[in-house]
Amino acid sequence: MSSRTTLLIIPREGHTTHIWKSCLGDGIFNVDGELWRKQRKTASFEFASRNLRDFSTVVFREYSLKLSSILSQASFNNQEVEMQELLMRMTLDSICKVGFGAEIGTLAPSLPDNRFARAFDTANIIVTLRFIDPLWKMKKFLNVGSEALLDKSIKIVDDFTYSMIRKRKAEIEEERGTGKNNKMKHDILSRFIELGENPGSNLTDKSLRDVVLNFVIAGRDTTATTLSWAIYMVMTHSHVAEKLYSELKSFEEDRAKEENVKLVQINTEDPESFSQRAMQYAGFLTYDSLGRLYYLHAVITETLRLYPAVPQDPKGILEDDVLPDGTKVKAGGMVTYVPYSMGRMEYNWGPDAASFKPERWLKDGFFQNASPFKFTAFQAGPRICLGKDSAYLQMKMALALLCRFFSFSLVPNHSVEYRMMTTLSMAHGLKLRIARKS
Ligand code: HEM
């Protein structure tokens, strides 16, 4: 699994929909009208469900702990880590678990290669590059070069996805046969398979594939790149790092009191006690308790203001229209809103717009949200991101654990620059040294 340049957002209409079709099929990102409305309705209902939330909380906690143990090992061995790559592995593993119920196991100290993960990355990059490759249609027709590789990669992704669909369907059938229907599975695929059994739902294996892969694509890179930028922002703003650490430490004490447990004695030179304490801390991180970490919430939101994972989001124009400022737009053309610029405009955020200041989101210590039409990292209106709460849940879980137990410094001479593909990743990754905190 090599890259972190991948995708997201689909400018719908005409040739752009066509470009993404190979990857996204008729999934929620790539369709409009009735097809979109139906998927949006079902997916919103699922995302609001307590079952999915509880299942995701367990998954996010488990993978955050895995990452923490890799970092701990690296710090004891004095090894550098490429954090963005580790975060990409963590978010891919977790979204595959939440999406398909599958363990793909890419987040491990040996950085194992995984056929599905590699093919998924390759497909995303090639599809993204179609936007700047005028010859892609010809290559596709002749099945040569990047298009031949794309074909192969999509086949690997599809084989894996269809095998998961068959497996889940067989498991659901078997449980019914044995009358053990109470063991309901909470991954998104299983829920959609069950919904597909309602008369009139018309969910074929192909539509199940599209639904699930769209979620994997939507949630993976966006969350990993935001986490990378957030860690970078925290480590380069010492007052933020201190305030955050202090919030996370007080939280630990409060939670131990609430749970009526003694905190495990920690010795940062002893891997065993360090890991025991991290596990205890992870146990304190629940959906409800994470909701109390306002400063952490502000740190993530401020990161997204300056480094929105989807930096620009183009849209096709259906009909001639006039924008509120009088600009005329023509059917068949494109308009793009640019969260990267909107997040930095003094007009929107005041004279300190360029500064990283989580405090701007707090009032009397509580987090205050801004209108999505001002803070546009998640879009606004009917197509606003469906995974926002889930993304915050995962990001808060991971950052609470990492910023409580570690401090980070940049490997000397490593340069952090953005690469603007469909998502705003770090062009050379994020190479870090890790220190443990007591
Ligand atoms: C920091 C993390 C994330 C950011 C910044 C983000 C941002 C966005 C943006 C800008 C859109 C609008 C795309 C458009 O205009 O078509 C969107 C849509 C969407 N997002 Fe997210 N997203 C994030 C995480 C997630 C996660 C974790 C999931 C699910 C697991 C998710 C699921 C979706 C879905 C399903 C849509 C399509 C909604 C529709 O077209 O009706 N997102 N996201």
From TrEMBL:
Any one Pfam family match given in the protein's UniProt record, by short name: p450
Family annotation (CDD domains): CYP86A (cd11064)
Cofactor: heme
Annotated TM spans: none
Highest taxon of source: Eukaryota
Keyword Heme: yes
This protein's UniProt keywords: Heme, Iron, Metal-binding, Monooxygenase, Oxidoreductase
InterPro entries membership: Cyt_P450 (IPR001128), Cyt_P450_E_grp-I (IPR002401), Cyt_P450_sf (IPR036396)
Family: Belongs to the cytochrome P450 family.
Protein's name according to its UniProt entry: Uncharacterized protein
Lineage: Eukaryota, Viridiplantae, Streptophyta, Embryophyta, Tracheophyta
